[in-house]
Design a protein that fits this description.
The protein contains ten helices and no strands. It has helices at residues 5-12, 18-31, 33-45, 51-77, 80-83, 92-100, 102-109, 116-125, 130-158, 164-197.
Length: 202
């Protein structure tokens, strides 16, 4: 079932305390980010969660998760067996490629399913500028999370009288469509960027 029942119960169980509810949402984003955003958006439309608390908690959880991915890569680079690869000739082409389009890469990873962890962890491993990373990640997060939240909020409003099974099934379709639309648009941006730079697509 979409979203996972355990996430719904986990967040629902924290309702009644703003602090615990906020923490539950933040933890939920660590486990399954986009389903958590959808759940919170629908619950906000039902009046169960306030919009300010919902958005604040989602932003915090997603950004902390991004920092966690970067930190994993950075910590990996300090391991004796891996540290030698940070400045190794083997990774030099990738480092040069990443540095030449760093902001676009970090921004795009937010919208392309499955690319966020390897991209953000690689940024940490190569010790790319953290200030640039976090600012770009925050901007991308604010756009994606806000869009998905309010789409979910709108969806929850127009389906308030529907059965849960119908609600979540159609919500799943919305998320899948968003994924593919975002991926298509950003791959088109990549193609234009690579063409203008005179480099092959990756």
């Amino acid at each position: 079932m979409f979203p996972p029942l355990f996430l719904i119960h986990f967040i629902d169980g924290a309702i009644g305390s703003a602090v615990f509810l906020s923490l539950a949402i933040i933890v939920g984003t660590f486990v399954l980010e986009d389903p958590t955003i959808v759940i919170v958006g629908v619950l906000a439309s039902d009046g169960i969660i306030s919009i300010p608390l919902a958005l604040f908690s989602l932003y915090m959880g997603v950004v902390l998760g991004d920092i966690g991915f970067y930190s994993i890569g950075y910590l990996a680079s300090t391991h004796p067996r891996l540290a030698k690869y940070v400045d190794h000739d083997y990774v030099a082409p990738f480092r040069a490629w990443l540095e030449s389009r760093y902001i676009l890469t970090i921004f795009s990873a937010r919208f392309i399913p499955g690319s966020r962890f390897p991209t953000y962890a690689a940024s940490g491993f190569l010790r790319s500028p953290f200030s640039t990373f976090i600012m770009t990640a925050i901007i991308a997060t604010s756009i994606w999370t806000t869009i998905l939240f309010f789409i979910s909020y709108w969806f929850g409003s127009v389906t308030a009288q529907w059965l849960d099974a119908q609600r979540w099934s159609i919500a799943a379709v919305f998320v899948v469509i968003l994924f593919f639309v975002a991926r298509h648009n950003l791959m088109a941006v990549w193609a234009i960027k690579n063409k203008s730079a005179g480099t092959p697509e990756v």
